[in-house]
Design a protein that fits this description.
The protein is elongated. It has a domain of 62 residues. The longest helix is centred in the N-terminal third of the chain and has 22 residues. The protein contains four helices and no strands. By secondary structure, it is mainly α.
Length: 130
């Protein structure tokens, strides 16, 4: 009789645990990602990622910064493209790669210096380097 009760309670426990796990869907308690629900691309909402220092409004210091650094950001994009193409090409010399790396770093630093200073970190309101 005691064995039957023990087996019955074990089966009921497993079924209850399975039902709870199933109810929370894929990814378990976190809703499918490690950070839990509320994080991810949908966190940004309309207007961009204001939590990351981007106002999304198109006005204010963010717009001024983007206008001031337009040419530098374009040049940085082009340098990065050239760098990755150089990495892909087996005939590229190490000196060429080093030169491109240095130019990219200098452009990143120049852009970073122009970034508005906010409470989001030393690289301005953008949280990371371009």
């Amino acid at each position: 009789m005691k064995k039957l009760v023990l087996v019955g309670l074990t089966v009921i426990s497993l079924i209850a645990f399975g039902a709870l796990t199933y109810a929370h869907g894929p990814g378990g308690w976190g809703g499918g990602n490690m950070m839990g629900q509320g994080y991810g691309a949908h966190m940004m909402g309309p207007g961009g990622g204001h939590m990351m220092g981007w106002s999304g409004s198109g006005y204010g210091y963010d717009q001024k910064f983007l206008e001031e650094t337009r040419e530098q950001r374009k040049e940085l994009h082009d340098k990065k493209f050239s760098y990755f193409e150089a990495l892909r090409d087996p005939n590229t010399t190490p000196e060429t790669k080093t030169k491109l790396e240095k130019e990219i770093q200098e452009l990143q630093e120049a852009i970073s210096e122009k970034a508005p200073r906010t409470a989001y970190g030393k690289f301005g309101g953008y949280g990371c380097r371009w």
